Please model this.
Amino acid sequence: MRTSMLRRLVTVATALGLGSAGLLGVGAVPAQAVVQDCPRGYFCAWKTDNATGTMFKTKVNTPTLGAWDNAFRTVANRTDKFLCTYDGANYADPVGAGVRDPDPELRDWGGPGSYSVSSLKFVPTARECDGPAYPEWHSYTAPKAAGFGDLNADRKSDIVVRDTAGRLWYLPGDLTGRMIGTGGWNAMNALTRHGDFSRDGREDVIAREASTGKLWLYPGTGTGSLGARKLIGSGGWNSMDRITAFGDLSGDGRADLIAVEKATGKLWLYPGTSTGTLGARKLIGSGGWNAMNTLVAPGDTNGDGRADLIAREASTGKLWLYPGRTGAVGSRVLIGSGGWNVMASFLAVGDFGGDGVNDIATVTTSGYVGEGCRGVGCLVLYGGTGTGTLKPGTPEMHNWSGLNGAF
Ligand SMILES: [Ca+2]
Ligand SMILES: [Ca+2]
Ligand SMILES: [Ca+2]
Ligand SMILES: [Ca+2]
Model:
């Protein structure tokens, strides 16, 4: 968010005990009162630095500004959308677009950043001022179906991202995206997918509803879209952390779920059943799992045909592989000696490299420094070796920042 220069000046003046009379001159109308003329639900602009004189207002996208072209000196965005300002008409010059957050309460008005604003539009997420709501994802066709990470079963790994407006986007792996959830997904505080739970052969999504602690199954339709949800956990799931659709751990061929109990640090297996529900849980880790701040379900990574578990240790930034056994995980093996805490999230969507071995990808935090990409929002690809370890990461320049999760 750009700092509002004028407001900051007034704030400093107030802090120094000057008051508006001292700063603005005796008899000056306090600027705040004029800015308040901007009605809620509108974007407003003025030709002066203190929001006096004629006010421009609109609540619709405006490709040309006529008499107001290059004239904005003070702006306020009292809509519930992000406002993008462009130096070119018709939303041209998107790379340099100005962005103002939704501000219905009028907390942050001020200079427009550029004095040559020639068009403006309103968008649900800041990303959309200079590009699509979703990031670029590319995957290669795998030689065999992974059974997970592939909602449309074309053997190309796909990803679902949630944007900050609570919409879901399906990324099929050809750099494009398609909206599969029109809103409301920010009500969920856990999202996971790994294979088929509903027993129709199509991959599904599982989500936890924050306000109720309920667990919902959103059945995949086989095209990347999701069908009508079904309750598979009637409550209590807020006591669990790291809810992770896993693949088959119990050994019956059906996809299972694992989760860590917050209060005890125990790791539990929730077996998938023949009816698409979850069966009675089974303890698979007696404690200590709160030390792990990420669980990743990459499928089989060491070539024994059983799905494995990767966990990140919070205190050390180490990455551990727990090889899958029947109904249990085996002794862990160190596969990442440190530094993994600079990753914001992990994506386990099968063999996106197309060499027959399952891979993982990460999205970085501000602490990441890689060759070709640094800071928040780099996508880093880690090819699997087939023996449970990972090849060195390949940073991609794709813009994966400004989202609210990917899975
Ligand atoms: Ca696919
Ligand atoms: Ca299914
Ligand atoms: Ca199972
Ligand atoms: Ca394995």
Notes: DSSP finds three helices and 30 strands in the chain. The two ends are 28 Å apart (CA to CA).
